[in-house]
Structures are given as C-alpha cells and as structure tokens.
Amino acid sequence: MSAYDRLPPELRAWLAQAALPWSPRSALRAWRGALRRTGCAEAAAARLSAIEAGQLARL
Q1: What is the 3-state secondary structure (H, E, C) of 13-58?
Q2: What is the SS3 assignment for 11?
Q3: Which of 4, 15, 27, 31 is the most exposed place for a label (fewest CB within 10 A)?
Q4: Which InterPro entries match (predicted)?
C-alpha cells in the first residue's frame, strides 16, 4: 500500500476509476512514459485509458 501512496495524485485518481487492477509499479512506468510523450497529466491519463482499453479488448 505504501507504493500506491507514493504515486502522483493524478495517477492515483486515474487508478481509482481504472477497470483493471494495475500494479503501482506498472502504472507508474506507463504514467511516466505518457507524461514524457505528452507533457500533460490529462493527456497522460488519456493514454493510460487507451492502454487499458487495448488490454480489455484482448480479454
């Protein structure tokens, strides 16, 4: 739980509504990559949603 608590607030807010059970480590890795590409927390959250939608489509 402490790893989750150390996540950025924007990422924790996104994880609270996520459909899949992301680990804090993988969520942070994806978040940092999305932030690097977009430079915007809102766009990074949209990128994580797209990643998650792709995973859900595979199920």
Answers
A1: HHHHHCCCCCCHHHHHHHHHHHHHHHCCHHHHHHHHHHHHHHHHHH
A2: helix
A3: 4
A4: DUF6525 (IPR045386)
pTM score = 0.90
8-39 pLDDT per residue, tens? 999 999 999 999 999 999 999 999 999 999 99
Burial of 59: CB neighbours in 10 Å, binned 0-12, 13-18, 19+: exposed
Question: Strand, helix or coil at 7?
Answer: coil
Q: Are the C-beta atoms of 48 and 16 separated by less than 8 Å?
A: no
